[in-house]
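Justification of resources, computational component.

The compute hours requested in this renewal are based largely on the per-chain cost of generating structure records like the one below. Each record pairs the submitted sequence with a full structure-token output. That output is archived, and it is also reused by downstream analysis tasks.
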Amino acid sequence: MKNNVTRKPSRFWVSFSATILLLALSLAITPILLGSSQSSWGPDSQSSQTESGQTVPVPTTLPDTPTPTSTPTNTPTPTSTPVPTVIPAAQITPVADSSIVSVTVVQPDQPATATSSAAANVSVTVAVPANTFGETSQIVIQDVSVDALPAAVPASVSAVVSAFSINVHTSAGEKLTRPALGECITIRSPYSSTDLEAAGGRHSSLKLMRYDSTASRWIILNTTANFINSTLTAQVCSSLSVFGIGIVPPDATPTPEAVVVEVGGSSPSSLLLILLMAGSTILIGSGAYYMKQGTRS
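The structure output for this chain reads:
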């Protein structure tokens, strides 16, 4: 804006334009300073300081100086991978209990899928990857009465709608008490509309649980509820025993632990940032002062 008398720009607009120009100049210089400082943060910063054409003297080896003998390095012996024991089907002894109708033979060198009997009250599917067992095994799936659970369920579980057991027998038919798993297995079990109604219509409140016989306690598994086909899915990586489908209200579900993600990369030095902030503050303050003086005049 120009003065009506002198037809020249007022001091206010001159000061305001100078402030904007100084601020833009500060913002333009900042990336250049950051780029120049980052060029010395990399691993090649020391090599870039070497002067061009500098001659490095080659040390002369004295004839009487003995050459040091290098100490031989001991190469570690590679650990041999255990070979899985595969038993032919003709040499497998079936499980002796005649009441068990759901028996699936699992070979250690290939994946398998074990399913419960069609006559069972609880439908269960177990996906077993290869190398889960070190030798040929037999997976047995049975119904378990809710009234005959091995221990009391956690207080966060309001009810148990169904239960079943997954046990492992050797190729000779002997039951393993606590079978170790080399790989995580995946357990799937459908739930009915009655189960969903008991859970208050909340699919996420239905959880798969596993009884830990070592600690004599129930463990609520990280369960995924597929509301389209009404199926619960969970992974087990430690052992097999008695399982159940329980109802866990939302207010009883523990809050998952927060995960801290570390972000890598370089950052400018603290001194450079302080100088940039101080310079910007001075420029803005100077502009504000001149603007104030311009308005007074």
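Residues 36-54, 253-270 have pLDDT under 50 and may be disordered. The radius of gyration is 37 Å.
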